[in-house]
Amino acid sequence: MTAQALRGQTGGPRLHRTILAVDDDEPIRSLFLELFRAEGVSIRAAGSGRDAIAMVKQSAPALMLIDVSLPDQDGIAVLEEALTIDHRIIGVVITGSATIELAVRAMKAGASDFLMKPIDNSVVLATARRLLDDGSEVDVALAEVAVGERLRVRPGERIPVDGRVLEGRSA
Length: 171
Known about the structure:
This protein is α/β, with parallel strands linked by helices. Helices cover 44% and strands 19% of the residues. It contains seven helices and seven strands. The strands form two sheets. The protein has a five-stranded parallel sheet with strand order 2-1-3-4-5, sandwiched between helices. A two-stranded antiparallel sheet has the order 6-7. Helix 2 links the parallel strand 1 and strand 2.
């Protein structure tokens, strides 16, 4: 399915902010580029962990989609390194061979979501929309100011911060 056809099916708010897609498989990178550019999203792509870290150092993305299996490094380790450069990066780990242990490792490393290959375009777009939802950014900014670090508030979760309560919303 093309990104153009998908846009008509998924609806939802337009995405904003930059995405970095990291995968050693050229057709996957091309799919991400086409999919998000059709949505008007600024997206860059890297084929290795080293290239991804260089891009993060140059200009950190809001969202990083990263494959676990890269030719030069483990994708989860790359995500961890990227988060040391800018802790505000939202990471989504992607793999073709998921295990519970791998998913737990990804989440402990700072991933906000974990997706399986083959890539389902509508799931990738919905995940990006949910994670980049501009409406929740105000609450995250408040949490950053109040406690000096990024908090991720899950739907239904309530966290008291500086006399206010942050409440997670579903997308």
